[in-house]
Amino acid sequence: MTILIGAISPHPPLLIPEIGRGEIKYVKKTDESLKTVSKKFNELDIDTVIFISPHAPFIRNAISIYSNEDLYGDFSQFGFPEVSFEFKNDLEIMNSLIDEGKKYGINFVKLSKDYYLDHGVLVPLYYLNQNNKRKFKIVAMSQHFTIDIEELPLVGEIIKKVGRKTDKKIGIIASGDMSHRLLDTGPYGFHPSGPKFDNLIINSIKNENFQDIISIPENILEEAGECGYRSIVTIFSAMPFEDYKTEILSHEGPFGVGYLVVLIERR
């Protein structure tokens, strides 16, 4: 079995009704798009979802991966500990990623049992959990934060190889927000590289040009204040354009942070 479906998903906690409350109306396009992603995943009766999150714990020269048999997370960081999730970890897929990574010099480091799932996983998981036919398993990992961009596609290749070796139906979520510098009123103010970065990513996806994605200059990445770039590079390495079609479901940034939702399906 190969990887059947994937998506790029933002992760603002305000999408959770208990947290966002009245503000959800300002991100209606994102909310509706993530509901579409959830519907598509559930239609395929996915066995395991692999999450790539920029908010998983940082380990230099490695990828952190949650290792508990039962993976738990809540939104206590945002004042709502009662909003919580618990899912089974797919230990088979997790260990396959670790073993495959060793062949290519990519280290996956198991996190201790003290670590709970981060909101980069929990927000898209909230949507995938809606109306699902049965409880899927998950694997949750960080981006590779320190590897050179030119070498980052190797991480996606490893995920792709693991997907091909299993008979399970696999989905991937590349969690990440786009630029945090789209508006003066945003968290880091405005910078011209903010909208430039978002447009470069969107146009590269529309044109199905992976080379354009990995060729975005480092200064633009830095100035844009993004957090999803490495997740995006990884998912399109695992799910290359020649084998998968994409649909940009929405892009908006009412609070100065870009929220991009992209559906990726087999051709």
Verbal overview:
The chain has 267 residues and is an alpha/beta fold. It has a single domain (3-266), classed as Protocatechuate 4,5-dioxygenase, Chain B. Helix content is 34%, strand content 24%. It is built from nine helices and ten strands. The protein has helices spanning 17-20, 28-43, 91-103, 119-128, 153-165, 193-206, 210-214, 218-224, 229-238; strands spanning 3-9, 48-53, 63-65, 70-75, 80-88, 108-110, 137-142, 170-175, 244-252, 259-266. A six-stranded mixed sheet has the order 7-2-8-1-10-9, with helices on both faces. A two-stranded parallel sheet has the order 3-6. Strands 4-5 form a two-stranded antiparallel sheet. Helix 5 (153-165) packs across helix 9. The longest helix has 16 residues, at 28-43. The mean pLDDT is 96.
CATH superfamily label: LigB-like
Strand tally is 10
Round the Cα radius of gyration to an integer and report it. Answer: 17 Å
Strand arrangement, major sheet: 7-2-8-1-10-9
Count of discrete domains? 1
Give me the CATH architecture, please.
3-Layer(aba) Sandwich
Poorly predicted sequence stretches spanning 5 or more consecutive residues = none
Structural class of the secondary elements? alpha/beta
CATH topology: Protocatechuate 4,5-dioxygenase, Chain B
- Overall geometry comes to globular
Instruction: State the share of residues found in helices, binned by percent.
Output: 25-40%
Order of helices and strands: EHHEEEEHEHEHEHHHHEE
Number of helices in the DSSP assignment: 9
- Chain-averaged pLDDT: 96
Main β sheet profile: 6 strands, mixed
Between the first and last Cα atoms, what is the distance in angstroms? 15 Å
> What percent of residues are in strands?
15-25%
Overall CATH class: Alpha Beta
